[in-house]
Design goal:
The chain is of the alpha+beta class and 60 residues long. It contains one helix and two strands, in the order ββα. A two-stranded antiparallel ribbon has the order 1-2.
């Protein structure tokens, strides 16, 4: 099993680097950044789904 650590190389960007299981600890800032990224992705996916549903409904 491969573990990944989240390293913030620049504000808003996260790079995945392999690391050992004993090196997994995320700091609170990393956890917050990860949560914000997940929320952004979820919101984007939701908007895409709504737009696609609207387009398919308006066509038929």
């Amino acid at each position: 099993m491969t573990y990944y650590c989240v390293a913030a190389s620049a504000p808003g960007s996260a790079a995945s680097i392999p690391c050992s299981p004993d090196n997994i600890g995320l700091t609170q800032a990393d956890a917050g950044q990860l949560a914000a990224a997940l929320l952004t992705v979820a919101a984007f996916a939701f908007v895409v789904r709504v737009v696609l549903r609207f387009l398919t409904n308006s066509r038929s």
